[in-house]
Batch of 4 targets.
Target 1
Amino acid sequence: MPIRTILPGTKVRIKEYNESPEFWDSEDTMMGYCGKIMTILSECHANTYSMVEDNGRWEWREIDFEIVQLPGKTNPNFLFKMNKKTKG
């Protein structure tokens, strides 16, 4: 399996959980980001990343999110979903 590098600027959607995973903060602050689009700031360790939107406060594991847009690329499906959601 090829190694995938997730670059700064990549847009990701944080997965939604019914309850806070044991590896997340005990105050459930990270739960507030579930379902939200965030931007990769940098790689912290292997497969963990900091995000722009939380000012690099948390380390997010690669299994906690899905990529929705690569840096410098426009994903028309992503834009359609955003526009569809806002039109009501």
Target 2
Amino acid sequence: MLKPINAEIDFEYKCEKCGGSNWITKQETISRKLKCYCGHINTVIPIKYVKITYNCFNNQKILNKQSVQKAINILRGVGYLKSTAETMVLKIAQTNSSLTTDKLVKQAIKEEVK
């Protein structure tokens, strides 16, 4: 599975005068000025950085999202880090999307102990 090595992202700003949409890149925000198509010059807040996260399990459909979220919250409540709990539960949910919350938690802990 490939991880992204680069990204091109544009940001949408609405003109203060006409309400029109204007798209600019992160680099273009540095100038702090954005000239709209109507001619109005808007002041924009520069973008310092963009954080992109991805989930390697997104290629399969999870049917019971509510049970998955509850299972993650239960694991977090007993001391697991959010990222660890998500990885554990999503791995189980990928193989059996019909499990109830309690069964997801039990299976996730069982798999970790192996």
Target 3
Amino acid sequence: MNLLKGSIFVDYGAGWDGDFGISSWADKALTSIGTTLTMKSTVMSWLPIEFGISTGYKMRDKKGFANLILSIGIDDFNNRPVSSGCFQSLY
């Protein structure tokens, strides 16, 4: 294990849904709160991998969510993963 990191987040916004008028945006804006925990490691000295979980709660929907985070691949020259994925489940 090279790095273990965690965070606490609060997110408020409407993304790219609708126009940018305040009346439209205010009706679609959502608030979510949660935490993340990820671990970075290198397998067999050449394959970087990062995996973890993020969990939270969507206030308006009154639903929780969990995301599995997975990033596997040989880094490009800018230290960005070549392949990554995120899997979401609402509960």
Target 4
Amino acid sequence: MAGMDDLRFSLAMRDIVNSLIQEALDQQRPKPRMATVKAIDRANGKCTITYNGETSQIIVNMGTPSPSAIGQWVRVAGIGTDKYIDGVVGQSWEQMQDVFSLMKVI
């Protein structure tokens, strides 16, 4: 039987432990969900959303990317009260600002 002093055995054991830890973390981390933007508060970096298929509204944090319009779909990630916008379907606010700044140059 191989021991920890055997390099191949040690590497295989490390890979197994890493795999087990990753699986446990993935089970505890909630999957991102899609939602519809109901209100945008850029001054405070907050956005009110409704998860698809639900009626209750939730306030989440905005960073980059942030939605450009009400009614836009976003991907929301995070745990508990630390939910945030992780992705935007369509053009984000930042992309719209880039387009407007290019139009000023032309």
